[in-house]
Fold this sequence. Notes:
Blueprint: E1 2-5, E2 12-19, E3 25-36, E4 41-51, E5 54-57, E6 65-73, E7 77-82, E8 87-91
Antiparallel strand pairs: 1-2, 2-3, 3-4, 4-5, 4-6, 6-7, 7-8
Amino acid sequence: MFVAISRANPRVEAKIDVKLLGGASNEVVVKTNLDVISDIRMTETYESASILGQKFDLPEAVKYSRELYITYLDDDVLVVRDASGTPEILVRNTM
């Protein structure tokens, strides 16, 4: 999985290659907004997805949103946890 975080919304773009029904590999792209609430808390809201080359904007009624808590941050590593405590570890790509 590759995750890009930028300054402008939608701030997050996550890409992953998946195989559907054992066929060829396809790229799935999900874009989310990331709003800063405090120094250690953010809200992530899913905005759109691209699957099989088709982009779908998510309707307001079904947009998934979650709070993220920054538990560790340095120049190369970001660790966030959601409300359930599940960690996500992101490592800076130097490419």
